[in-house]
């Protein structure tokens, strides 16, 4: 007989301007209290100017180069956008969010996330100002 | 004992040329008939020239600026592509779909999708002609 | 009473330089042995320089044009990146992975994936050298 069950958590994340904030550890901390060995973890970002990304967590230069790439591809240039009322970084933020992920699902096996050796989970802040962000963690498993 | 169960629905969406069509309401309408309080909703777009996106639903200019961004980044220019037989907007449509989402999952709690305050769910049409699109809705929950 | 259960598999994929490798068939082969009719399949790529993509599998030119697009948008140009130690194709690979998918979920109904008529599932290799890649397949269903 199946013993599948669900768990839900709202993870608060503080950001400090544009760039990637690693959230792998708080996610693993939450999972470690659940006594669920095998299942599927889903992360959902409740914002349209921040997003989620799985990236290399070995060399911090990778995060800096990613930030620079997105600044190039979606520049702060008022001539490019109609939606400028919320600041020059708001429309680029929506574009950057559209190009990355609002949601990520990661399988869990033997109590461990099946991330690759170099993979870390990041919240990607796209606004210049610090923000309090919320990521919903949903787990289904047994 | 768990009472987890599944539900499936095929949502038809009419589009009218390139741009975003909000589908938050028909999704919520379907959920409201299911008597499932907590779970995970997955949306799957069955096309390679349309896609899914969660974006701000407060200011319609955001949708227009997003459409303009994707038109700039993947222009209709036959010199850039080998695959031109299905029309000048077909290969740009595949690129735009690759840069956004074919699938989205959103946690459900207390009978409500855990979307953020400003988040709406959109089908993103990438072809110039109107199309009938199909989005599969899959819910697992209790 | 629900009979929901889970299955997990690690699919090895050989790649031969930058480009798309279709993995629809090995995925369906695995599903065909499971005796699960309805559910949700999740694919997770355990790498930061390869990713997942659902694209048209009718005309191989689409795959070539996609590859060319990503080479244009994230060029191998050492002046653009700080992270160059792992080769000129490494940072572009991370960018290409960020712009596509690390994870995909596809509903299953009547024993069949609900892919659209022209949709195929691809592993997208972003490095020049051949690699052995691993995609985790997770199925929950009944």
From TrEMBL, chains A, B, C:
<dbReference type="InterPro" id="IPR035917">
    <property type="entry name" value="YjbQ-like_sf"/>
</dbReference>
<dbReference type="InterPro" id="IPR001602">
    <property type="entry name" value="UPF0047_YjbQ-like"/>
</dbReference>
<comment type="similarity">
    <text>Belongs to the UPF0047 family.</text>
</comment>
<dbReference type="Pfam" id="PF01894">
    <property type="entry name" value="YjbQ"/>
</dbReference>
<protein>
    <submittedName>
        <fullName>Secondary thiamine-phosphate synthase enzyme</fullName>
    </submittedName>
</protein>
């Amino acid at each position: 007989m199946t013993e599948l069950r669900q768990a839900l958590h709202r993870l608060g994340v503080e950001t400090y301007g544009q760039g990637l904030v690693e959230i792998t550890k708080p996610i693993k901390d939450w999972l470690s209290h659940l006594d669920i060995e095998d299942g599927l973890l889903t992360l959902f970002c409740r914002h349209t100017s921040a997003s989620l990304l799985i990236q290399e967590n070995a060399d911090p230069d990778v995060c800096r180069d990613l930030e620079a790439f997105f600044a190039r591809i979606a520049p702060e240039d008022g001539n490019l956008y109609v939606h400028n009322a919320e600041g020059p970084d708001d429309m680029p933020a929506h574009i950057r969010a559209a190009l990355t992920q609002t949601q990520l699902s990661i399988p869990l096996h033997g109590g461990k996330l099946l991330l690759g050796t170099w993979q870390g989970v990041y919240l990607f802040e796209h606004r210049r100002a610090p923000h309090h962000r919320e990521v919903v963690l949903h787990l289904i498993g047994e």
